[in-house]
Amino acid sequence: GQQVMQIPQYQHVQEGEDFTTYCNSSTTLSNIQWYKQRPGGHPVFLIQLVKSGEVKKQKRLTFQFGEAKKNSSLHITATQTTDVGTYFCAGPSNDYKLSFGAGTTVTVRA
Amino acid sequence: NAGVTQTPKFQVLKTGQSMTLQCAQDMNHNSMYWYRQDPGMGLRLIYYSASEGTTDKGEVPNGYNVSRLNKREFSLRLESAAPSQTSVYFCASNLDGATYEQYFGPGTRLTVT
Fold first, then answer.
1. What residues in B contact A48, CB-CB < 8 Å?
2. Which uninterrupted H or E stretch holds B75?
């Protein structure tokens, strides 16, 4: 079945630095969603990408959907302590189910 | 609006005990989901309900049952708890399927000893 892989599993970042987390699917996706989970919290929807090559920005976060619609990335510039948490990507595995990646857990050194 | 609510927040069970996790949403969503979250494994789908009156298995359904009681409520039952079911359980809902964002409840932390 469809699987979504995320790398890296952990990202330790100095405050102010940039980093990128990557998401890869074994199949073409109709859309990809990104979620953020703060420590001790629940996942919260960030964004959905639908079009091939689509790029969307939310302040310091830039999301990209690959041309083949099989990969995606999240790039964070000038990391802040508020960026701490786990970022998940998720793609549909049927009309109703989402397959979530294992997540990238981000810690920030002040 | 409360969004998605879950009860209880915490639970400790002994092996072999049963319990039901409750979930309710007030957003008039058609689809509801139960996930479990274990360290390093992301969110794994246990069961989902595409719409009122339907339920389907996800990736890891063994040892669980669900009931879509009405459009608002979707419960998860552990008939005979096992230590392998120690996890954090999240309920989620969305308007209608995989093209819509999911809204998650606060989670239930379950420990089975």
1. 99, 101
2. strand B74-78
